[in-house]
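Page 47, continued from p. 46.
Same chain as before, 79 aa.
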Amino acid sequence: MEKGVSIYEEAGQFHVQRRIIRNLWQRFQQRGVTTDLPQSGRPRITTCLEEYTIAASAQSFPHSTINCRKLLRTKEYQS
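Result:
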C-alpha cells in the first residue's frame, strides 16, 4: 500500500477486516476507483423524490399504514 502503511494497520484504523482493505486496494489498483460496477437486475420504479417522500412520511408517522389500492388508483402513480 502507499506510504508504507500495511493492510493490517489500515484495517485496525478503520475497524474492518483485513480482507475488506485488501479487496478495496486491489479494486483501486485495477480500475483506479473503489466504487462498485453497475449491476444487472430489475430497474428502479420509484424516483428519488418519491423515495424521499416515503422515507419522510415513515419517519413522521412510524405507526401508520397506507391503502395500496387507493394509492395505485391515483393518477400520479398510473403510467
